[in-house]
């Protein structure tokens, strides 16, 4: 499967306007804005998936584990043609498919229902294993987690398994906005490296740095990119 043709008329500068269409309570704004650049670079330059091929066996899979702040995700999906822009103003309403947490049965392009923290990385490990078992070596699996999600033990079980299993089609982005309750000796990347992962830490607002880190070779090992952004405000 080749990279999807990027034919959208929307650009990164349009995303704040698209996000601004989503109003209402429980927006979890900081959770969304912290992920905006990561999600854009992935969908604009890295992921091999398109609206027409969102069910293709050879597609890349993107799993949003940080699903409690999905507005940036919805804005990018709209910009790339997965969902109609006209859906955005209804965000969070009773009859809208765009809920406060993404629902894979309602949102075209969404791979998982998410929002309960600590689930995305374990699901991604299982997805990578399933693709390997089917002999599908081309698809890549990406999951986006927040730094506070690493307080959940399920993630550490997944990290500890994926390295020795050599899941080199597995990629994780940790958006670090200093929300984690517990500090980690050596930083977040060191935890993954200790389990045999390839790890890079970059500025989560620098698109070129993100792209370079996302596409760095890591033969035989899963890969994590820690994307540092401004600390979450109180």
Write the layout of secondary structure elements.
Layout: H1 15-20, H2 29-33, H3 36-46, E1 61-64, H4 71-79, H5 120-133, E2 141-146, H6 153-165, E3 170-176, H7 188-194, E4 198-203, H8 207-214, E5 223-228
Fold and architecture overview:
There is one protein chain. This protein is 31% helix and 12% strand. It starts with 14 loop residues before the first helix and ends in a 6-residue tail after the last strand. It has a five-stranded parallel beta sheet with strand order 1-2-3-5-4, sandwiched between helices. Strand 4 (198-203), helix 8 and strand 5 (223-228) form a beta-alpha-beta unit. With 234 residues, it is an alpha/beta fold. Helix 3 (36-46) runs parallel beside helix 4 (71-79), helix 3 crosses helix 8 and helix 5 (120-133) packs parallel to helix 6 (153-165).
Protein structure class: alpha/beta
Relative strand content: 5-15%
Largest sheet, spatial ordering of strands: 1-2-3-5-4
Major β-sheet profile:
5 strands, parallel
Terminus-to-terminus distance? 44 Å
In one word, what is the shape? globular
The H-and-E topology, N to C, reads as HHHEHHEHEHEHE
What would the keywords be for this entry?
234 residues; alpha/beta; 5-stranded parallel beta sheet; 5 strands; globular
């Amino acid at each position: 499967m080749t990279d999807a043709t990027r034919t959208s008329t929307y650009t990164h500068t349009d995303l704040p306007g698209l996000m601004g269409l989503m109003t209402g309570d429980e927006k979890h704004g900081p959770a969304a804005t912290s992920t905006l650049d990561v999600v854009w670079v992935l969908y604009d330059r890295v992921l091999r998936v398109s609206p027409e091929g969102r069910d293709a066996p050879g597609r890349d899979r993107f799993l949003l584990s940080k699903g409690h702040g999905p507005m940036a995700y919805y804005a990018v999906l709209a910009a790339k043609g997965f969902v109609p822009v006209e859906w955005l103003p209804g965000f969070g309403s009773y009859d809208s498919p765009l809920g406060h947490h993404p629902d894979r049965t309602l949102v075209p392009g969404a791979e998982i229902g998410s929002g309960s923290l600590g689930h995305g990385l374990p699901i991604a490990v299982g997805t990578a294993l399933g693709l390997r078992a089917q002999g599908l070596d081309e698809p890549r699996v990406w999951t986006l987690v927040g730094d506070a999600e690493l307080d959940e033990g399920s993630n550490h079980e997944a990290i500890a398994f994926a390295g020795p299993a050599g899941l080199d089609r597995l990629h994780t982005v940790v958006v670090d906005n200093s929300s984690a309750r517990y500090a980690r000796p050596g930083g977040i990347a060191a935890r993954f490296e200790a389990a045999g992962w390839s790890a890079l830490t970059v500025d989560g607002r620098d698109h070129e740095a993100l792209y370079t880190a996302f596409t760095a070779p890591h033969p035989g090992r899963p890969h994590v990119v820690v994307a540092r952004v401004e600390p979450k405000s109180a």
